[in-house]
Amino acid sequence: MTFQDFHFNHKLQDGLNAMGYKNPTPIQEQAIPLILAKRDLIACAQTGTGKTAAYLLPILNNIIHSDHRHLNTLIIAPTRELVQQIDQQVEGFAYFTGVSSIPIYGGGDGAVWDQQKKALEAGVDLMIATPGRLIAQLASGVIDLKHVQHLVLDEADRMLDMGFHDDIIRIIKYLPPSRQTLLFSATMPQRIRTLANRILREPVEVTIAISRPADGIVQEAYLVNDDQKEKLITHLLKGSNFSSALIFASTKEKVKHLGRLLPKLGLPSKAIHSDLEQSEREEILREFKNKQLNLLIGTDVLSRGIDVEGIELVLNYDVPPDPEDYIHRIGRTARAASTGHAITFINQFDQRRFGQIESLIGCEISKANLPEGFQSSFVYNPYSKQRPDKPRNTHARNSNSNKRFFKKRS
Predict the structure, then answer these.
(1) CATH numeric code, 3-208
(2) 65 in helix, strand or coil?
(3) Could you count the other beta carbons within 10 Å of the beta carbon of residue 330?
(4) FRET partner for 22 with CA separation of 20 to 30 A, picked from 81, 161, 262, 316?
(5) 3-state class (DSSP) for residue 379
(6) pTM of the entire predicted model
(7) Residues 188-201 pLDDT 10s
(8) Dihedrals φ, ψ of 126, to 5°?
(9) Distance separating alpha carbons of residues 278 and 352, to the nearest angstrom
(10) Given this structure, which CATH class describes domain 217-367?
């Protein structure tokens, strides 16, 4: 199947051709006809499967054929980074169509607010917004949502995790009941189904490879004590040939610490976190996307809000607190049918949590041998109930490591 089979407007098809889009992904192949048919939709697909294009393309096609141009579509996303990325995709797909869009997000100064306000007063076809900033703009009276035909909730599970449920319900009260509503989520817990039952009308459900990493990701883990993590990460990264890598840590404090430490150890890198100004975060992401920066450090918020091609390595400095976050973290690599490598550091207190990850994805992840000079003090036990105040000393037992990725630089 090709994108020609959807019979999009020729201007939209020109944009696809210019961007090199030829064959739809499974989520696009299933979702696009349903959206074109005006059905409400619940779509569950992991990161990197092309779900943004799955809803943008049929919506843009609808806008092109609309007789009356007004604010046609509202897309709500959890983070400013994701809002910006969606807006960039709109710009690419709609390049030849004349369809206009605006990203609405917080974190900027008064000039950004004024710029957003002026653009809304001038009129746009499509708005992508974070819930908090959208509510602020609604309170100012600038935005009129009474003609909105499409509502998209992207990364709906993440928005609920971040406490945006009441904000979403409040925003929906401004929308006409006759709209088409599309809910996209990487996971489908009960709270998502409850929300869907409340705001969608007879929805069709599409599920693609839920809770499984992409096949192109080589996954492995190291059993390592906390006091050896810094030394191990330096050993692995200095001995690798990566051109683009992400390091994830579960707290902002660890991210900031690694951001200070790694450059001192000869690993040029930058940390991205909420204490930075919006302009600083945007500049760091721009450098990373343009390959001017090879190594980026962030928290799980980054795992849902970054879409960069060519990331070869994801390294989890610690086990993520939620098994689903593991899927999102390592989903930053091996995107669009490429390959990648994912490594996780497991200390003695995170064994049970890592066992839950293995249970979720339905396979055991290889435990790599520690390099010479390193020694772990425990044997992997996914049923361990150890707590930090009750450490246990045992000898390490590791399986062989996959050596495909790590090669000395020539």
Answers:
(1) 3.40.50.300
(2) coil
(3) 30
(4) 81
(5) coil
(6) 0.64
(7) 888 899 999 999 99
(8) -140, 135
(9) 37
(10) alpha beta
